[in-house]
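If your schedule permits, I should be very grateful for your opinion on a structural question. I have a record of one protein: its chain in single-letter code and its fold written as discrete structure tokens. Kindly check, if you would, that the fold set down in the tokens agrees with what the sequence suggests. I remain grateful for any guidance, and I place the record below:

***
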Amino acid sequence: MRLNRAGEYAVRCVMHLAKNGNGSVISRREVAEAMEIPEPFLAKIARQLTLAGILDVTQGSRGGYRLAKDPGELTLLDVVEAMMGEIFLNDCVCQPKICKRSPTCPAHRVWKKANQQLRDTLKSATFSQISR
């Protein structure tokens, strides 16, 4: 698994809002400039984060973004999976039935453990912690 550009930009966007928003609306331009995200790309990312319930978007001349969740309850896992879907290291972890060897395969157990450790690490990192 490799975090793609949209995932990286989504994390940057949410970090900026967590650090600077305090529940208020921050303009798209400010987020884009502060976090070095192209504005058109930020708009696309914001749509996905809004659908996932992470952002609220306000339209108009005083519009922009604000977090829909408390930064202390919002995790890196939430944002990454909102952009990329469920994280998994390989197909046998996500869909063990595709490989008939999964129940007895020693490597499968390692992949499954590593996958869970990655998810746990991302889930334990809240945006209030990482945006300090």
Residues 90 and 103 are 15 Å apart (CA to CA). The domain at 5-86+126-130 is CATH 1.10.10.10 (Arc Repressor Mutant, subunit A). The longest strand covers residues 55-58. DSSP finds seven helices and two strands in the chain.
